[in-house]
Amino acid sequence: MTDRNDRRWNHNIHHHPRILKAVPAGAQRALDVGCGEGTLARELRRTVPQVTGIDLHAPSIEQGRAWADDVDHVLGDFLTHPFEPASFDVVASVATLHHMDAATGLTRMRDLLRPGGVLVVVGLARNTLPRDLPHVLAAITVGAVHRAAKGHWQHPSPVVWPPPVTYPEMRALAAELLPGSRYRRHVLWRYSITWRKPRD
């Protein structure tokens, strides 16, 4: 199968460059948590020699394995799969954390990072109205402009809605579990958390 990643757009793919820019120099191993059919994993593989994508959704993993790439597509539960602790230079997760207990997921991602490694989470959180109404209106407007210009690719993975955790709750959780992390709320229905694990 030929790579057509550059022709796709949706709210998740829009944030992939944020993850790719955060990959530390010399990274050898990357993990894509909730990889779906592997769009981000394939992008990571362009610069990282060993990339593993893991997902519970068997049809998505089958689609990922059909691509001609060197990504290791694992069908399994990220929380219980026997990865070695501190074994990845990059751990990335896009629109996955709200499918699990957020604290448990962030802790597991943190523990799988090597010292000096980088964790980047792009996630969905729940809006609280009317406080978040300006964010909602901005997201609707900007999203419509992007879709008109780029189209919209619908991923095959399961959808969970609404997200169980609010934006302020995610900010607080990141501060608690990942001291020194950078949390940002973005226009297109997403937040991001970026954290570099301290070296021993």
Automatic annotation (TrEMBL):
Listed CDD domains: AdoMet_MTases
SUPFAM superfamilies tied to this protein: S-adenosyl-L-methionine-dependent methyltransferases
Pfam family of the protein (one): Methyltransf_11
One of the protein's GO biological processes: methylation
Enzyme Commission designation: 2.1.-.-
Entry-linked InterPro entries: Methyltransf_11, SAM-dependent_MTases_sf
Keywords tagged on the record: Methyltransferase, S-adenosyl-L-methionine, Transferase
A GO molecular function held by the record: methyltransferase activity
Ranges where the Methyltransferase type domain occurs: 31-121
The protein, known as: Class I SAM-dependent methyltransferase
Origin superkingdom: Bacteria
Transferase listed as a keyword: yes
